[in-house]
Amino acid sequence: MSTPPSSNPHFDRLQHMPLFGGLNEAALTVLLAHSHEVQRSADALFFSEGERGDSLYVLNMGEVMLTKNSDTGPVTLTRLAPGDCFGEMAVIDFSPRSATARAVTESSALEVSMDGLLALYRSDVEQFALIQMNMARELSRRLRKLGDRLRG
């Protein structure tokens, strides 16, 4: 007998996050089947700018800082708290990571693989389209926030 998806400790968390909003139980089950939890100690990297990206992350515990390299050194883009997602740009546009994600404190995150997204596409294209739209909305929200910050 298989374990019900709702017994997965990540299931309820994902169900209530904007990135996964509107996804049905079957879609979340597909994504969770292709996900695993990763741990990082303080100052350890989740990924570096320029690396190939084949997953996105959902921060469960800790704090993560996103930085971008510039001519004068790293520029802090944002600090992330539990419940925030990061790394989704690389799974949308198949380009290298656009920033570095570093744990500020001991952190854990659910890593959702590109394979999970492709499995979702194969099993339910409508649910796949929904998560793609949710990722686009999240990126738009972050760009607006960064634009507001740049305006001063």
List the helices and strands and how they pair.
Elements: H1 11-15, H2 25-33, E1 35-40, E2 45-47, E3 55-61, E4 64-68, E5 75-80, E6 85-86, H3 88-93, E7 100-103, E8 107-113, H4 114-123, H5 125-151
Antiparallel strand pairs: 1-8, 2-7, 3-6, 3-8, 4-5, 4-7
Helix pairs in contact: 2-4, 4-5
Number of helices: 5
Cα-based radius of gyration, to the nearest Å? 16 Å
Q: What amount of the residues lies in strands?
A: 25-35%
Q: How many β-strand runs?
A: 8
Structural class, from helix and strand content?
Answer: alpha+beta
User: Which shape, going by the Cα principal axes?
Assistant: globular
Order of helical and strand elements: HHEEEEEEHEEHH
Mean pLDDT: 90
Strand order of the largest sheet: 1-8-3-6
Describe the protein in words.
With 152 residues, this protein is α+β, with helices and mostly antiparallel strands. Helix content is 38%, strand content 26%. It contains 5 helices and 8 strands. The protein has helices at 11-15, 25-33, 88-93, 114-123, 125-151; strands at 35-40, 45-47, 55-61, 64-68, 75-80, 85-86, 100-103, 107-113. The chain has a 4-stranded antiparallel sheet with strand order 1-8-3-6. Strand 4 (64-68) and strand 5 form a beta hairpin. Helix 4 packs across helix 5 (125-151). The N and C termini lie far apart (57 Å). The mean pLDDT is 90.
In short:
The protein is an alpha+beta fold and 152 residues long. The chain contains five helices and eight strands.
Question: Which properties best describe this structure?
Answer:
alpha+beta, four-stranded antiparallel beta sheet, 5 helices, globular
